[in-house]
Design a protein that fits this description.
Elements lengths: L1 H18 L2 H10 L5 H15 L1 H25 L4 H4 L16 H16 L3 H20 L5 H25 L3 H19 L2 H22 L8 H24 L4 H22 L3
Length: 277
């Protein structure tokens, strides 16, 4: 096993020797932003308001589940990252374990979702290029071994099966499922004293509340592309404000987290619709 990781470490060194430059470092450091919760929420908002609301809802929940699964598996394997073993390869580094790669999980989900939901091959090829670039960047930055990437892709693929096969079943009882999903995090967070699990209770509860309000208010469906684009801009703008509020007022982070979910799922889009003549 150690020999396998030694070989992979040497491959990372060879890759960096061949490609590394200040320009490449800057590009991939910037590209690291796509492996953040903020980027994921923005992509979810784009899918929710510009593409299809059903897809946006599914997208949100599968990414939350992916986050939980990734943290649990990292804790179980506790595999160090290349940058933790050899700081010289660490263009960027993280204190968390490396296996499986959360970025690779997300890449598999992003790409697979487009293949499942979209028939246009142009978008499928773009999604595949995005996924490959994201996976490659993690190795280039010294954040992951190739086996971490492979593990993330496998886990992401299994989660896609859940998205494809199981999510339609829950949509028949979506109110119960959405609320139960939130309170499951509250229960697990309190029982196991896991602050990160407890934190997830608030954005998921915000989304559940927003979904219920959307149905209760009888929101009119169907908007032209331009109106949907403006709606998306407002929703993303509101999310950015809530991100900043969470950063500068961290003592209220649970309130901001609830607000992010509620704004995403209902309030942001509803306020724009109210302004329509």
């Amino acid at each position: 096993m150690q020999l396998m990781y030694d070989v992979q470490m040497q491959w990372i060194r060879s890759l960096q020797d061949a490609l590394r430059s200040p320009w490449m470092d800057a590009v991939f450091k910037g590209w690291n932003y796509v492996d953040t919760a903020y980027f994921s929420l923005i992509v979810i908002a784009l899918a929710w308001y510009l593409w299809d609301r059903r897809i946006g809802i599914r997208f949100f929940y599968i990414l939350v589940i992916s986050l939980v699964v990734n943290k649990v598996l990292k804790g179980a394997f506790h595999q160090p990252r290349p940058c933790q073993i050899d700081p010289l390869v660490g263009i960027l580094c993280s204190a968390s374990p490396g296996l499986p790669s959360g970025a690779a999980q997300s890449a598999a989900i992003y790409c697979g979702l487009v293949f499942i939901e979209c028939r246009r091959w142009l978008y499928r090829w773009l999604a595949l290029a995005f996924a490959l670039l994201l996976c490659f960047s993690r190795v280039y930055l010294g954040l992951h071994y190739s086996t971490d990437i492979l593990g993330g892709l496998v886990v992401g693929g299994l989660l896609l099966l859940m998205y494809w096969k199981l999510f339609p079943l829950f949509e028949t009882i979506w109110k119960t499922a959405a609320i139960s999903f939130s309170f499951l995090f509250l229960f697990l967070g309190l029982i196991f004293s896991l602050s990160w699990v407890l934190y997830l209770f608030f954005p998921t509860l915000g989304v559940a509340a927003g979904l219920i309000m959307y149905e209760k208010m009888g929101v009119q469906k169907g908007m032209r592309l331009g109106a949907r684009g403006w709606q998306t801009v407002i929703v993303i703008g509101g999310l950015c404000i809530l991100f900043l509020a969470e950063k500068f007022l961290p003592n209220l982070k649970f309130l901001w987290a609830f607000g992010q979910g509620y704004w995403l799922s209902f309030l942001g889009g509803w306020l724009v619709r109210r302004q329509r003549p």
